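Appendix B, Record 12. Input sequence as logged:
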Amino acid sequence: MKEVKQALSQKFQVKDLGELHYFLGVKVVQNQKNRTVWIGQQAYAEDILKKFGMEDAKPVQTPVDTSIKLTPGKSDDACVDQKLFQSAVGSLLYLSIATRPDITYAVSNVAKFCAKPTQQHWLAVKRIFRYLKGTKNYGILYCNDGSCHECVGYSDADWGGDISDRKSTSGYMLQISGAAISWRSKKQTCVALSTAEAEYIAMTSAAQESLWLQQLLTDLKKETVKSMVVYEDNQSAISMAKNPQFHGRSKHIDIKYHFIREQVKSGKVQLSYCQSNDMIADILTKGLSTGQFEKLRLMSGVVPLIES
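Logged structural output:
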């Protein structure tokens, strides 16, 4: 670190940085006594709420209304300002990829309609802002309590969740110290013929991210991370990845998705079953009831900041 600072000081004016407090708008709170690190973007959340006139909005408990399924606008639907909609979605995207996995699915869902947003889509965006209004002080808390230093992953899929084209949504989350370090929610590019197939495709994305993190952790720890556990809540998908005898049920799947089999066989990825109620990645694939959403949000490590 001293060498890096010295090299930078030869090119730029540098002061003694001390302990990290802010980085690219992300607040960092380190508690040496409790051995925790909290990261969040409360100031940024307040800024975008004010920017889009939602600072006085009535808060809601979840970012997605489970009673409404968003669909592409029809020719006779009233459209909203496209630039305003895209600006709002873009502002929320930065928040969702940096410190707020709890809104990632909701933001990804509305982002699909940026080309022709309607009033229904705009109401969905406003609901996310209303959720942020009540949770603007939330962020990710990492606890160094010695219970979980290893990186583990969770993979899930919502089969046929998009009612317009019946494509599924993949979601994965990888955690260290009881909180998320990498997550993603994305609609699959092909139509899955079963729940197991949708889950199998989702596991491939989780495996790819796992391998990248294995290399990163190896670089940071200076010791080889040989394998990573990925939790999955579908037994059939696990069997398809582990057992070649299931080839007849999966030979129609695009070759690129069989990447997971090779990684399981080599031992770089270990698949383990997880109960559906405890599948953390479920928060990245669909809208959930308030109770389940709050449970998975806590399991993701997303909590409010409590400064001592």
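The beta strands are 22-23, 26-31, 36-40, 138-143, 152-158, 169-176, 179-187, 228-232, 269-273, 302-304.
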